[in-house]
């Protein structure tokens, strides 16, 4: 198990199916549970980060020599190293995380300078006032998408050309910066996402068969769960929005739109990585293929 945890889990899954599935009802139940397990597996890095945010908020000593933010940074780095060392995460996924870390940190530096949110605690490991753990929060999104793409064996109908998706992602990223100084075009970007991705259908495999849903709905659902996670993050005072200085309240539902647009950027980056890695087979079976 410890030398090859993914192969061990894969074998256990096959044994569970053989012992449980006896007809259409048990097959549906097994597929439903398998879907949840796969999602949890894809959220491994992000779930660990959210648990760290909440755990350190509740239990981390306020007089510790190492600031809480730095502990979060070092913990995220240790988790990343551990996932690669145990082969629970591929190098392809690690590259995606690195790209997201860089893209996210650049945005964080600008957004905190513009006053969109702040990091209220001290840290040694920071760039321009932004603690380095923040980049791992963006990386968690990239990690999830890279893992879920492989775990669910994504297939697509009417997949938009990557160059068109790239232009849309670039426009979204630029608007995250420029809307502070000029016209905010996010409603036009929402419309563009519907035009480009509206016809696209994603096929995913919870168990033995592929199921389908409109890609736009899938992206919106993921954005919704990220919004839930953001509420946990602000409750744990990992960062705070204006108006949360004197007490926590839920993050505005309007932020869901921002996360939806960020999902488009994330999806395009992962799509580019997957195209670049096409034909490179992973030599170890995934525990929940």
Walk me through what this model shows.
The chain has 289 residues and is mainly alpha-helical. It has one domain. It has ten helices and five strands. The strands form two sheets. Strands 3-4-5 form a three-stranded antiparallel sheet. A two-stranded antiparallel sheet has the order 1-2. α3 runs antiparallel to α6 and α7 runs antiparallel to α8. The chain is globular. The C terminus is likely disordered.
Strand order, largest beta sheet: 3-4-5
Count of the separate structural domains: 1
Q: What class do helices, strands and sheet pairing give?
A: mainly alpha
Separation, N- and C-terminal Cα atoms: 18 Å
Count the E strands. Answer: 5
Radius of gyration: 20 Å
Relative helix content: 55-70%
Low-confidence stretches: 278-289
The best one-word shape is: globular
User: Into which percentage range does the β-strand content fall?
Assistant: 5-15%
Mean pLDDT: 87
